[in-house]
């Protein structure tokens, strides 16, 4: 039982999902930086997907940390953004940074999908 004004302990699954969101956020930020250094080669569709995924994963992690009643819904949206980003990154299969980002996005998407179906 928790004391009034305190939050219940975070489940292992939620903590793992939160960590996956933050890792994905960081990877998207690194990948955006890499794309900007490429110059004209970076496709706008990929950049949009990276930006959407970066912001969504950060917001999802924030909502889980504060145990928002909307966290499960946000996890569902986050999984969708991560799926879209992974797909966009896969459009550049020769770029190792893009492939690392796609992997981080897929991992986060899987964890967020599981959390979206869980009771938080």
In brief:
The protein is 74% helix and 0% strand.
Give the secondary structure arrangement, pairings included.
Layout: H1 12-38, H2 44-65, H3 71-89, H4 96-116
Could you name the key traits of this structure?
single chain; 120 residues; mainly alpha; 4 helices; 74% helix
Could you walk me through the main structural features you see in this protein, from its secondary elements to its overall organization?
The protein is an all-alpha fold and 120 residues long. The chain contains four helices and no strands. The protein is elongated, with a radius of gyration of 15 Å. The two termini are 16 Å apart. The mean pLDDT is 91.
Using the CA coordinates, give the radius of gyration.
15 Å
Mean pLDDT: 91
Tally of strands: 0
Q: Gap between N and C termini, in Å?
A: 16 Å
* Count of runs of 4 or more consecutive helical residues: 4
Tell the overall outline. elongated
**What fraction of the residues are assigned to beta strands by DSSP?**
under 5%
Helix content: over 70%
Largest sheet: none
Low-confidence stretches: none
What's the SSE pattern? HHHH
Structural class: mainly alpha
